[in-house]
Amino acid sequence: MRAAPSPRFRRQPLHVEVNAKPNPGYGVAWLATLLFLLVMVAGIWYVGLRSSSDNLGRELQAKRKALDVGKKELENLNVELERYTSAGYIKNRITVLDTGLRDPMPGQVRRLTVEGGRNHGEFSDISLAAFDSPAWREPRPGLGGAAPAQTAPVGYP
After folding, report:
1. Does pLDDT of 148 surpass 70?
2. From CA 3, how far away is CA 11, in angstroms rounded?
3. Chain segment 30-69, per-residue pLDDT in tens
4. Three-state SS for 52?
5. Residue of higher predicted confidence among 156 and 97
């Protein structure tokens, strides 16, 4: 006795050609080739980005080194400026060069303010000025309250 067909399956006749050529399966080869090319392009792109990143890193490192050298040179120049503007150095150079300048007498040195300078209008140690005035000259009005006396020509001994 034959079993009754299952309601889930249908039976259909199968037609097979005897002389039909087999399908070579080019779809899998094309997919493999496309996948290989995609991996190659991604690899080349990654190497290019990595090379560019390395070049930028080296360039940044060189610029930082140049900046550090510039900062050190600026610091050295500031130290040299302080040395050249110090009172001891100036007095030493006056003595060595034998210019005939003398130290200012008391009352000759007054503080000056420099507008727009490094001290922004504040008093500064390097903004001292010596005025050559004779010893017999009385103080000017406003500084000592006395009237102005006769003035002698300004010069160095």
Report:
1. no
2. 13
3. 899 999 999 999 999 999 999 999 999 999 999 999 999 9
4. helix
5. 97
The reported pLDDT for the residue numbered 95 is 84
CA angle 59, 61, 63 (to 5 degrees): 70
Cβ atoms of 116 and 129 within 8 Å: the answer is: no
Terminal-residue alpha carbon distance, the chain: 149
pLDDT digits (tens, 9 = 90+) for 59-114: 999 999 999 999 999 999 999 999 998 888 988 888 888 887 777 777 777 666 65
**H/E stretch holding 109:** strand 109-113
Q: 104, 130 in Cβ contact below 8 A? A: yes
Backbone dihedral region of 113: left (phi > 0), alpha (psi from -120 to 50 degrees) or beta? beta
DSSP 8-class letter at 23: P
Buried b (16+ CB within 10 A) or exposed e, 12-47: eeeeeeeeeeeeeeeeeeeeeeeeeeeeeeeeeeee
SS3 129: strand
